[in-house]
Amino acid sequence: MTEPRTGGRILVDALRTHGCDRIFHVPGESFLAVLDALHDTPAIDLVTCRQEGGVGFMACADGVLTGRPGVAFVTRGPGATNASIGVHVAMQDSIPMLLFIGDVDRGMRDREGFQEVDFVAMFTPLAKLALRIDDPARIPEYVARAWRTATSGRPGPVVIALPEDMLVETAVAIDRPPLAPVEPVLHPADFADVLDRLRTAERPVAIVGGAGWDKAAGAAFSAFVTAWGIPVAGAFRRQDAIANDTPAWAGNLGYGPSPALVARIKAADVLLVVGPRLGEATTDGYTLVTPDHPGQTLIHVHPDPTELDRVHRADLAIAAPPLAFAAMLARAEPPAEPRADAAEAHADWLRWSTPTPRDVALDLGPCVAAMRDRLSGHDAIICNGAGNFSGWWHRYWHYGWSGTQLAPTCGAMGYGPPAAVAAALRCSDRLAVALAGDGDFLMNGQELATAVQHGANLLVIVVDNGGYGTIRMHQEREYPARISGTALTNPDFAALGRAYGAWAETVETTADFAPALGRALGRDGVRLLHLRTDIEIITNSTTIGAIRAR
User: Fold this and answer.
1) pTM for the full predicted model
2) Where in the chain is the domain with CATH 3.40.50.1220?
3) Residue 414 · residue 57 · CB < 8 Å
4) CA 171 to CA 202: how far, in whole Å?
5) pLDDT of residue 384
6) Which of these CATH numbers, 3.40.50.2300, 3.40.50.970, 3.40.50.1000, 3.30.70.930, describes 5-171?
7) Which fold has domain 355-549?
């Protein structure tokens, strides 16, 4: 455009040009010019949230589901510090995200003005890139750079500070077209080497998920491992990398994996890792797959070359997008007969993921099984934050293709409800399910108000055991029977849900869960099931009594 526009108008136009169709925010006076421009931009849906932590988590979830940067706006100081948790999640989870922060006027900088923070200094250790825009004419340049940075190589968050006076200043700016992500090229010689190593391997195992993974990559990789008979495991909280009904699916790594899968990983002579960084959770503190992995050949494929050989020494390091690599694998000539390993690994996982009833009033294992009977893993989007409660779904739920599991690998609490709101708005034809523990839920449960306001259709399950269960578990292991600071006194979560405008019920027995779930699924809007459980049953595989006995 050649006509003068305000910085706010230039920014909104730039975001629209790059494909932004939704913004999550808590309003602030520091970016009123942006809100004014959005008033005349119906193509961008403005989702008004209740706390900036919820804003950040919603943007993270939207980035996972679309493959485009989730876009968030918050105000300076308290707003930005609240939103920083979403930046941390987006970085550790390799999610494209743009966080815009309304900042103090340019003339007020460095005076410790009202809510002033040096955001470039603050977010540089947390984000992939942190920027400040001081000239409205350069907004298209910065947005193009931020968008490409967020989506290229290892995806991640970009933080952009916006001085308030810059947003109201007018300028003539030249709009920039969207830029495609920069992707490395897969070399045929490297690919031939991969096939040679896999053909001669005796006990190959694949580990998948992470940066750049999507449904197309999952489908191609599923075809490959099925034809070759190679067991495939998901990295921590990447269980939707491929549909779990793939005949080669062997389960998930992370906290509480199947012992049979752990043994299989340890016994593998070749590990084909496509997408994951091989972080602490996936490798059980860098012990399951050690940085030098003696006796094992590691083939590591990642879209960002700077991640290769960063921690784990790779025998063959390949910088390539998962889809390009998986598509070539799917086209390769398979062996005459698939290995028996994959079928054996899948059978092991089916046994592991089938709950055995426990002698307790409300047993979460059969509850997950009842959910599986009523909801398709290919359609439902399971969203959870951190806590032992999530382990029941990690073990017993059968996930579908990419985008059916929204869960932070960095272990952030409070993620489930806002992520489910974002999923419900983005995928209105599917059911978003928010899973939360009692401590977890109260960190961002206020976003149920956002869900109701924006007409979201979702199911919320609050697992209430009256404590911070994960920390209680660690406490019992290190200081048995010396409970300190981990007990919780909770509200009536069903009543709280109804106060927000949700339909809600409390469930106290296993037998009551399936009928309550049926009643919830027979309704639209926000529905909440409050599950009262016993903290003695601290995980899906042990009890507090057993921990104390050890």
Assistant:
1) 0.96
2) 188-349
3) yes
4) 65
5) 96
6) 3.40.50.970
7) Rossmann fold (3.40.50)
